[in-house]
Design a protein that fits this description.
This is ATP-binding protein. GO terms for molecular function: ATP binding. The protein has two domains: 4-252, no CATH class; 318-460, Heat Shock Protein 90 (2-Layer Sandwich), CATH 3.30.565. Strand 1, helix 10 (355-374) and strand 2 (383-391) form a beta-alpha-beta unit. It has eleven helices and seven strands. The protein has helices spanning 4-31, 40-67, 72-98, 103-135, 152-181, 190-211, 218-291, 299-313, 321-336, 355-374, 426-437; strands spanning 340-345, 383-391, 394-402, 409-410, 413-414, 441-447, 450-458. The chain is elongated and about 115 Å long. The strands form two sheets. A five-stranded mixed beta sheet has the order 1-2-3-7-6. The protein has a two-stranded antiparallel ribbon with strand order 4-5.
Length: 460
């Protein structure tokens, strides 16, 4: 036997430390789809330090209580259940402290991450059953018996092989697709129901199966482990479906909005064309009168014709329908408010972005720029410029506008000027999320009274 003091330390620390470390991996891999909270290294050091300190205090205390109780096995099962729930709940503030996530996004990451860890743990328990039944090897360690020296290789195998296998499969089948869908789309209260499902089914079922070891037969335990694995996969499937459904709903809403804007612009174009046709008829009539010496053309009338033509010319044609839609909408808005919007755009460079991503990114960017210049008292500074071009294998976007000159950047991100910071400021986060989803970079800059937005997105 391995010395009892070593076994005591190893088993007590593993009760919390190993599950926490195993669970943090998939949780943080999912949360990494969101922007980090700066200073990230300091935050990570503080969070992990707190986790380690709690583990070093709670684990030995729990070990002492369990080993000196009248029913160590019963206390151990209760402690496993309670500690699992505590770890799951604690993962929510941990995720929110490291990444810019909402409560629902953190719940998604915590629930999915814990389910993946439980699937890996269940796979390890299934391997222990096989080794014990067919080879007579007792892998792992327990509170009361410690760990046999002969079982060390088997213990290492059943601990790390399931982690490598399950985590690799989970990354390819769940984590990577979930990150691609974008965690910004899981603002769904159905996540609470999924979390309850994770707690009641996955965790409780796992503890129940462990309590049957030594009581039920091999076939029964193997069957239960198989059902547990299926339940874990089903929970992950449900969570991904919630994410995909929400993403499709937002995609549909964006498409409907784009279609509605396109229809509005079509009606506006028809109205402008009709107005221009009327003006042309009147111009022809006035020209005929001027030529015959009857009168001169009214300057005010010519100014009204110029305004009609200017509105008609504000319709953008960049080669990207979504970009045309948003630029036309913002051009008309700028004209009404006396803002100059200059655009040089190659819409074909944005082939990597979906229509909803184009609409969301440029809608947020131009709304922020227009809001900034709208506050300026000097009419000459009320201008916004936008450039979209392709440079090699990159789509390069540059947006520039004047602003009041007050510092608006915090940790590289613009601070919202709205009083309610809880409901505002998500536009720029959405922009960054869209760019980083395509492995691009987004930077904000300010110098004197000029604010800039620069994005570089790889073109497939």
């Amino acid at each position: 036997m391995i010395p009892q003091d070593f076994a005591t330390i190893a088993t007590s620390l593993s009760v919390i430390l190993v599950p926490v470390a195993e669970t943090l991996m998939p949780v943080l891999m999912l949360a990494a789809a969101r922007p980090r909270r700066e200073p990230f290294p300091l935050r990570a050091a503080v969070v992990f330090g707190i986790v380690a300190a709690v583990t070093l205090v709670v684990s030995p205390l729990a070990y002492f209580v369990i080993m000196n109780s009248a029913d160590p096995d019963g206390y151990n099962r209760a402690y496993s259940l309670v500690s699992s729930v505590v770890i799951l709940v604690a993962l929510v503030p941990v995720t929110m402290s490291l990444y810019e996530t909402s409560v629902w996004q953190a719940l998604f990451c915590a629930g999915a991450g814990y389910t993946i860890q439980n699937l890996a743990s269940g796979t390890g328990e299934f391997l222990k059953l096989l080794l014990s039944h067919y080879m007579g090897i007792s892998a792992g360690f327990s509170m009361r018996t410690g760990m046999n020296v002969e079982s060390v290789p088997a213990t290492v195998f059943v601990t790390f092989f399931p982690l490598a296998l399950v985590y690799t499969a989970a990354y390819l089948a769940f984590i990577r697709p979930a990150r691609r869908e974008g965690l910004g789309d899981v603002e769904d209260h159905g996540m609470l129901a999924v979390l309850i499902l994770v707690v009641l089914v996955v965790i409780s079922f796992d503890v129940l199966i462990k309590s049957l070891v030594g009581v039920a037969g091999f076939l029964a335990l193997a069957a239960l482990r198989g059902v547990h694995g299926v339940v874990c996969c089903f929970v992950l499937f449900v969570q991904f479906e919630i994410l995909s459904r929400r993403s499709l709903e937002l995609e549909l809403a964006q498409s409907q909005r784009i279609a509605s804007e396109r229809e509005r612009q079509y009606q506006l174009s028809r109205a402008n064309i009709d107005a221009i046709n009327v003006k042309c008829h009147d111009i022809r009539h006035q020209i005929h009168q001027a030529v015959s010496g009857g009168s001169t053309i009214d300057p005010e009338f010519l100014a009204s014709v110029e305004r009609e033509v200017a509105v008609y010319d504000s319709q953008a044609k960049t080669g990207n329908e979504a970009l045309d839609t948003i630029l036309t909408e913002k051009s008309l808005l700028c004209e009404r408010e006396g803002i100059s919007l200059s655009v040089i755009a190659d819409g074909g460079a944005l082939v990597a972005l979906s229509p909803s991503e184009v609409y969301s990114f440029f809608g947020n960017a131009l709304d922020n720029a227009i809001e900034a210049v709208r506050e300026l008292p000097d009419p000459s500074q009320r201008s916004v410029s936008l450039t979209v071009r392709r440079v090699g294998s990159l789509a390069v976007v540059h947006i520039e506008n004047y602003f009041t000159g007050e510092a608006r950047l915090s940790d590289g991100m613009p601070r919202t000027s709205k009083a309610d910071t809880q409901r505002h400021g998500f536009g720029t986060r959405s922009m960054r999320e869209i760019v980083e989803r395509h492995d691009g970079t987004l930077t904000f800059g300010q110098r004197e009274c000029t604010f800039t937005v620069d994005a570089m997105i790889p073109v497939p």
